[in-house]
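Same chain as my last thread, 245 residues:
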Amino acid sequence: MAYTVRDFAFQVYRLINASNPTTPLHGDDMSLCIQVLNQLMQFYASTGLMQTIAKTVTAPIALGNTSIIFTDPSYVISPADPTLVQIAQGRLANLDSAWLTLSGVTYPLIDKSRDEYLGAWKYEPLQGLPRLIITFPQNDFVIARLYPAPSQGFTFFCRGKFQFQELTSNDDMGFIPQYYIRYLLFATAKDVSLFKGRADAWTARLEETYREAKDVMEAASEVNLSIVGDQENLLNGAWRVRAGI
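reply #2:
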């Protein structure tokens, strides 16, 4: 049975209306809950560290392709730009690793600083085996530049965390793990209680349960704890968070 955003919203309000959990929603209750939920998910996506779901995506790279653009599935790129290869799995929030394959051989890519790349781009057009990947985050997408440019076709692989699409009331939340939904229930209810002027409804017991759910969610997060000088994640400064800087 599908678990929709509407079902989620009803559960959220039951947490802060414990004395009468059957009270129907009214006014802007539903829209406010969905707005807060989407804001939380986009807030978590800013670093990727609060997202627990990482996945591997792939795309073919042909001669002339120099960049990969990570977008929401609904985002349309210009077909006039032959250098871009689109991966429509969501905006890339956190890059863990990237590599190329050719004839059964794997070629790891090193995540390099944008400053280093911008100081070397004038040496284009260089072609050969790409060794570096440089990320350029934008509001709605992230572009990853391969350098040097590929001199032949490769298959590109990337493992990372991707920003969720914004949800509407009828969307199914089945793609989100249950332990993550449990945390989102308490996190959303906490914020909604403030926006609805019901801060008193957020009790010490709810706060304790919220923190327990957060600990479980963070423990399940896939985070690479190795700090390596030439391969740190420079997409969003996540390596600084991990290193305590």
